[in-house]
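Annotators were shown the component list below and the corresponding predicted structure, then asked to write short factual statements about the assembly.
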Amino acid sequence: MNVHAIRAIYHFEMARTFRTLMQSIASPVLSTSLYFVVFGAAIGQRMGAVDGVSYGAFIVPGLIMLSLLTESVSNASLGIYLPKWSGTIFELLSAPVSYVEVLLGYVGAAATKSVMLGTLILVTARFFVPYHVVHPLWMVAFLLLTAVSFSMLGFIIGLWSESFEQLGIVPLMVLTPLTFLGGAFYSIAMLPGAWRQIALFNPVVYLISGFRWSFYGVADVNVLLSTAATLAFFLLCVAVVAWIFRSGYKLKS
Amino acid sequence: MPDSTPAAPGEPIVRVAGLSKTYASGLTALNSIDLSIERGEIFALLGPNGAGKTTLINIICGIVTPGGGRISVAGHDIVREYRAARALIGLVPQELHTDAFESVWSTVTFSRGLFGRAPDARHCEQVLRALSLWERREAKIMTLSGGMKRRVLIAKALAHEPQVLFLDEPTAGVDVELRREMWDMVRALRERGVTIILTTHYIEEAELMADRIGVIHRGELIVVEEKARLMRKLGKKQLTLQLQRPLAGVPPELGAWPLELGDAGHALIYTFDAQRSDTGIAQLLRRLQELNIDFKDLHSSESSLEEIFVNLVRTRS
Ligand SMILES: Nc1ncnc2c1ncn2[C@@H]1O[C@H](COP(=O)(O)OP(=O)(O)OP(=O)(O)O)[C@@H](O)[C@H]1O
Ligand SMILES: [Mg+2]
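Structure shown to annotators:
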């Protein structure tokens, strides 16, 4: 294991994060705060409680997940796309590293940033809505697992992308709808019959449900199923990355 | 693993056997290349645009996937033991690929870590000083000139103390002063036992720097020779005599001169070493007169690199 390489990549990526601190941290925090003001404080006052939780508190886990997913994907995808775009990837390809070290460096840095961001939003939310966390360890576990898994997905998207347009399209066209329809703002139980079944095909439902369970002890789907689904997704991403590096797909000619 | 034993002294440090490469486009860039690079030598790869120099280097360094064939670096197979092989290699690519926003210092220390070496500020400082980059170590790379960026790439390649250094057209777009500095640096590295493989379009550069020269043309390594010997071949001039009457063959009386017939017997071509004080031309012309071989025109020409390539290709096939 080339530990020096992992450290080098991780530091390189974290330095990039801190160079662009404003857009990478401030803007997601600001936009999520706006959600809290509008949905939590303003509209939430007139909404009934969902599953015995006030609406403002109910949307906190979903909103954190929303930022966590989009930020993980965009951080990690940009992290690996930039060297491809500028040509500096030659150095990574010629270095004595395997995909494991590359992943640990890039995905580790992207996930670190997402977790920092998630924590920051969690703290910010406290200013707008009162919430509590019933299972804090589970909450941290879901936060970490989601940050890592979706950073991994972002890494794959970055490897696959051949232009900045492609880089932006997956988060915009796939991730945002999946999150909005994944129960960030409502419980799946609130959907009419057939839609409830369809919703269960949305992987984000399992994430948000599990995460919300760690806050309030209520869930749309069994928490173990949530955990299993997230882990399965994580492993799938690892397999895809391993294959890309072995075959050189989109990396080597 | 038997392959992981380091190569014995005297073993080639880089061994390429039967290497071929066809890109996805269907273009065959390398055709069955065999090449051994000796430990501690400076080897120049010479060839025109598109010959396959960069492809060869990029395959050895792991950037392009090999087609057929095998490559080892210090006895380590570059595919199966890529970690051991790549840790020994430093590469300065042909294109100036650099991180715009990084500082010189951070990009050089990054390279050292990436290649598996513990941080060593002293070594990185030495490298930067040797390349006159020390004063600019805090500068963002994008604020540097092209020549400075090339120095940064060299510094990155040297950061992990490689044993084999690949320089892919190090002097392209570089002014005279930097070119001289670079040559000095290459010699100093060789003094320390680093093996250097460089590519160039310029015969003079190869002549100045290299111990051995390989000429690559259309994906084939058409000659690998010690510099002195190759330069004797390359330094040739030709005298072409347009004959009045065509000859069927070179007359035996002219056997003392290396002569060839061209233009279906209408031209007599004498190839000679321009560096010699006695070129033999005067004697040849006298002898022709004695033999009554008349000519209507004559001209001499120096073989260009292109002609040498073409000749080498022709004599090979
Ligand atoms: N990624 C690629 N895909 C397809 N063809 C390629 C690729 N890279 C190089 N080639 C082709 O392979 C051949 C050899 O290219 P290469 O870059 O190795 O030449 P070179 O000797 O380095 O030339 P130059 O002196 O111009 O740098 C060229 O015909 C080139 O067009
Ligand atoms: Mg080239």
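Statements collected:
1. Residues 179 and 198 of chain A are 14 Å apart (CA to CA).
2. Chain A touches chain B at residues 2, 4-5, 7-9, 11-12, 15-16, 19, 83, 86-88, 90-98, 248, 252-253 (CB under 8 Å).
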